[in-house]
């Protein structure tokens, strides 16, 4: 059975809702570990067959600075060895620059970014949640 890790940080609950929908999509065909960034370890990423990582846009389109940014930065000198990965998160304003930069950053760390990061404006709508479930299915099929 595939091991899928979903690591996320959520301030208002929107990104958490997305994480839960990804978990729902993956859970039929895999063992899913859903973990908040403040409780995550590098092993949650390194020991998984595929990974989803979620964080909303904060400030000037940046990752959350207390938990998610240090967690992501901890992979800078670790080769992710083409780890299959999809990023996701919610936002309030801007055009998704934080997600494009984050996708590129994770590619530079050695991740195999399977698709452009999924962003949802504020609270995810039904269409966004459907896309999240599809991400879960995609990760489980790797």
Please characterize this protein's 3D structure.
The protein is of the alpha/beta class. It has 5 helices and 6 strands. It has helices at residues 14-26, 42-46, 68-73, 97-108, 126-140; strands at 2-8, 30-36, 50-54, 84-91, 112-113, 118-121. Strands 1, 2, 3, 4, 5 and 6 form a 6-stranded parallel beta sheet that branches. α1 packs across α5. The longest helix is centred in the last third of the chain and has 15 residues, at 126-140. It is globular. The termini are close together. The mean pLDDT is 96.
- Contiguous uncertain segments of 5+ residues: none
Alpha-carbon distance between the two ends: 11 Å
Please report the number of helical segments: 5
- Topology as a string of helices (H) and strands (E): EHEHEHEHEEH
Radius of gyration: 13 Å
Q: Please report the total strand number as a whole number.
A: 6
Helix content: 25-40%
Structural class: alpha/beta
Form type? globular
Q: Estimate what percentage of residues fall within beta strands.
A: 15-25%
Mean pLDDT: 96
The largest sheet, given as strand count, sense and whether it forms a barrel, is: 6 strands, parallel
Topology overview:
Layout: E1 2-8, H1 14-26, E2 30-36, H2 42-46, E3 50-54, H3 68-73, E4 84-91, H4 97-108, E5 112-113, E6 118-121, H5 126-140
Parallel strand pairs: 1-2, 1-3, 3-4, 4-5, 4-6
In short:
With 142 residues, this protein is an alpha/beta fold. Helix content is 36%, strand content 23%. Strands 1, 2, 3, 4, 5 and 6 form a six-stranded parallel β-sheet that branches.
């Amino acid at each position: 059975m595939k091991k899928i890790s979903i690591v996320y940080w959520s301030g208002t609950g929107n990104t958490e809702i997305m994480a839960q929908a990804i978990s729902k999509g993956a859970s039929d065909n895999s063992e899913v570990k859903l973990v908040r960034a403040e409780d995550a370890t590098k092993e949650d990423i390194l020991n998984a067959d595929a990974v989803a990582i979620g964080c909303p846009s904060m400030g000037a389109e940046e990752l959350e600075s207390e938990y998610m940014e240090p967690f992501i930065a901890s992979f800078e000198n670790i080769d992710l060895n083409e780890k299959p990965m999809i990023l996701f998160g919610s936002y309030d304003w801007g055009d998704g620059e934080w997600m494009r930069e984050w996708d590129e950053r994770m590619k530079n760390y050695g991740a195999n970014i399977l698709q452009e990061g999924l962003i949802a404006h504020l609270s995810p709508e039904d269409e966004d949640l459907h896309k999240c479930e599809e991400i879960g299915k995609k990760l489980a099929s790797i």
